[in-house]
Queue: 3 jobs
Job 1
Amino acid sequence: MRASFLQRMAWLGLAPATGLALAASPQAAADAAPGVTPARLAALAFPGWSDNPAGRVVTVSLPRLPGMSRKAGHGGWTAGTNRVVAEPRLLLRTDASHLTLIAGLVPSEEGSTPAVNHTTPMALAAYQFEQSGGQWKVVGRQGVFALRGFFGGANVRAVPLSGQRQGIAVEYGSCWQGYCGTWMSLYELDKGTVHHEAVVEMALSGINVDSTGDCMRRLQPLIKAHPQDTHPDDDRTPPDGHDCYAIESDWSIEPSREQPGDLVIRYQGAISRAESHAAPPSAIDQRQVLRYSDGKYRAISGFNPVPPI
């Protein structure tokens, strides 16, 4: 098993031993607009916003998104007015005089401390700007287009879909009860506006070596052993009742001039199936290709071997 799986987990702010996820650092394309900072645009998008802990707390209105209602929250979110900590996450140039700012919003109840738990996703919001007369002004308030992540954290970065089209990748992950996973949602931009529906959503990695005491043993020698906590139920968990796995992936978009290029994912790792738990684990080294059509990426070869978590 390569070290990149643990590097990916650390990069996403995951702590497999404790099950905690921390927010990733804000990302901004420094060359997207020379002389214009994400903080400067955030102050235009959120009246009264300033780049300090107290100044980042603002009030926004959330649309009714899947899993939300007027009375029941979704991991700390409710439809309607919400008090949030707002931070610029990504700055994209759409043409010579237009920019799009992606902001990350996290619920805040008191002061500037985020009010999050394991199931709290980050709210992703988009704002469009135009340069006129040497000044930047807000020309579009798309607002929240998605809820993604855990503990209010997710990694947001720009991804060229082709020479003519841009995308935003949102990667996030967490661990619970010995099961860890990372996921990705990919969104397309159209003239600076983010499509609400992702062009693809998929599991990138999965590992459950700490879910039961036998998984580490069953996956050797394909993965390196590490110290494990004692599981009180290990003796009562039959090995033929669960799979053991440690699977990671790397993905990229193939270069293309106009139409979004193929999405290529390479999976690597190991798996021990319940029905063959006494046998050596199976190595995983496979490739999946997804092709863009009618606003979606669909598999044309291979499959995703990461088990549902």
Job 2
Amino acid sequence: MSAGQKAKAKTEKIVGKAVGKTAHAVGDDTTAAKGAALQARGEARDAKEKSKGKLKP
């Protein structure tokens, strides 16, 4: 996994979780959903990068 992609995945997961929790606490469901989507995108990017590393001979 490249360091840049790993950092990007970690950042998306952290920011998405923070945005989702903050928006949920305020009662903004639309922004909370966007935060959850960002977190899911980060998790998917992380899984993709981990699987690429396992396929190399």
Job 3
Amino acid sequence: MTQSYSRPEDAGRRIPGDGPEPGGTHRPPSRLPRTWRRRRLPAVWPSWRVRFADVAAPHPLDRPWARAVLLVAVAVLLGSGLWLLRWSGTAPTATPDTFWYARDAFRYAGWSEPAADRAAADITCGGLMRGPSRPPGTRPDCVRYRAALPGVAPERFQRIFTSRPGYPLLTVPFVRVMGTAGFSAATAALGVACGLAAVLLALAIGLRPLQALVAEALFFLLPTGFWGSRLLAEAPMMLCVMLALTGAVLVLRERAAIAGSALLAGALALLCVVKPANGVVLATALAVGAVLLLPVFASRRAFLAVAGVAVLVLAGNLWIGSALHLPGVHETLQDTFTRHFRHPDVPDPWHRLSAAAGKLWSGDIAPAMLENPLIPAAFLFAAAGLVSRVRWDAAWPVAAAGLTGAAIASLHPLVDELPRLSAVAWIPVAFGLAALTARTAERPDEDVPSRPKRLEAETADLTPGG
């Protein structure tokens, strides 16, 4: 075989692959041009233009923090849209109580008393003038009347609002930056924060992220969302309620005992500053419920922790109220039965309360339930969702919070104020109905440990996956 070489001195050199002996008949393997190989054949090593992470790059949502950020972003967008939906419409965005909250907010922000009174009157009248049920007269007449109220209203009535500075204090940063518009902006921020708290509580009781967003949507679509969008203390009140429930559930499920206890204590304390009646009733309900269920569940330390924190907040609230001579339940009853202290005090407010509460339930609430069967149906379906789809140690605090709405309405037997005072009763409805949206319940980390075996046998068919 004739070979051609580029140099004469290599004429007798054996070429590898050209046969066993020089001069053989074996042909060397054909080689592709260098330029064609680069274009057609894959490279053994990736070039500098291809990053190694592209070969098996994980999805961005595979990271827990990325999923958490996405869930928070979706919850904020959903809550903002639904809050604006509830804010819009023809319903008034304020009540007469708005004036006292706004007045304190502007005064805490450093405004003079005349300027604070007039700004609060302007905000209140602007909200009252919306819708068909507007007050008589023009808006300037309304502003003049409201601005003069601090000089003519009884001091005992004004102390009821000054003893609950939580809502005005939360709006102070917004008022200092945005002026009069800051009061409405702060209420909007608190309303959207309620949606985030609803998602957090839903995840704490064991719902999936999609169900948590459903719970947030139901929160805004139910009466809770309507009253959370008004210029009242209901938005921060419900925010504190759901944060307190989240802390209690974390302690009961033994996931984050220290952080849950701190969240429970802080939320209950803030709730007592925002609306003392709701704070006292919720703390009492959690303490009593934890003590009554103590023999049932095996995690006695967790139940004792919840009861201890609730009792500690109750004791602190009573001590501060007694030391500062703040208005209590007795003063609130006198305000109810004397028409805001326009008449002399009644000698037996508790006896009148029992009679008025009985009349409220038998003459107003029961007929309303019969006329609109969707209301009791919603509560029944929500109860079924909490019982069948949520762990019992996480479901009972949410149900107890709903019962506080009935207690608050009974302590203030006013028919006109009933929808607002009982708004917290719809919180467990949102979570119970959201739990029913799943095809199957999420299996908890471990079965709820209980002491009596008879209870385990009776509830075996209600346990998810059992």
